[in-house]
C-alpha cells in the first residue's frame, strides 16, 4: 500500500472466493494473458457510482459469501449486486446502497439470498499494485490482487483505499440488481454458426437452458437441447468474452473473464458484455434463454450503460 493509503478493512474470515477486481486487462491476450476483471461488471460499476468513483475503480468481488471484515477506519462504503445477507455488527444492510461504517465494526456476508456475487466499493478504490495495467485477480494465471500474485483474500489481509470523501448517491429506481426478470441473454451470432444444423440453431434460440453446476470464472456450461455441428475439426482461434463454444456433447459453454485465450471448439457466437454480467449472477439450476442480437444493437446497449454512469460528470 502507498503512504497515502487508508488501512480500512481487515479480513477476519475469508469466503470461498473474495477477489479484488476492476475492469480487467486489455491489450495482453497476444501474450497468452486473459482478461480477468469483475464478472458482473455492471454491479461493480453501480457500486462505484454510489460513491462517486469511476465505474472501473477496483472493488471487492464477493462470491457466495461467508466473508467477515473488520472496519479499521470510518468511511462510506457501497454494496451492489447479489444479496448475500450482508450485516454490519449483526444488523442487516440494505443491498444496492451506500452506508457509513466506523472503526471497530464488523461487516459480514452470509450466503446467497438472490444472485451469486456482491461488489463492495470503497472511497477511491482498493489500493493494490497494478500488474500489466490492472489489479484484477486471476488465480489461474497468478496475476493481480493484493500481492500481485493472483491469490484470493485470506484471513489477516488488510485492504486499504485511495480516497477520502465520496458521494452519497441513491440508485435510479429502474436499476434492479440482479435483475428480477427472466434471464434473456443477448447473443451475437457468428463464428461457426452456419455449420450448425438448422434444428440446432432453432433450438438454441427457442428452447430453455439451465445453468450447470460446472461453472466458475472461466466459463459456465449450459444444459439443454443437444446441438450438432457439421465441422469435424478446427484450428484453434482467439476467444472473446462471452464466446459460446459447443463441444462434442452438444452442450454449450459460455466463456467468461478468466477464459483461455484460444480454443478449437465451434462457436455459435458470443454473448454481449451485458449478457455476461447477467449470467454471472445465475446460480446452478436457474433457467435462461438465448436471444439473437446484432453487433450494432450490442454496441448501443453497452455504450448506453456507460453513459448512465457518466451522466453527472
TrEMBL record:
Presence of the UniProt keyword Hydrolase in the record: yes
Keyword field: ATP-binding, Hydrolase, Nucleotide-binding
Residues in Carboxyltransferase domain copies: 30-309
PANTHER family: 5-OXOPROLINASE SUBUNIT C, CARBOXYLTRANSFERASE DOMAIN-CONTAINING PROTEIN
Protein's name in the database: Biotin-dependent carboxyltransferase
Lineage: Bacteria, Pseudomonadati, Pseudomonadota, Gammaproteobacteria, Oceanospirillales
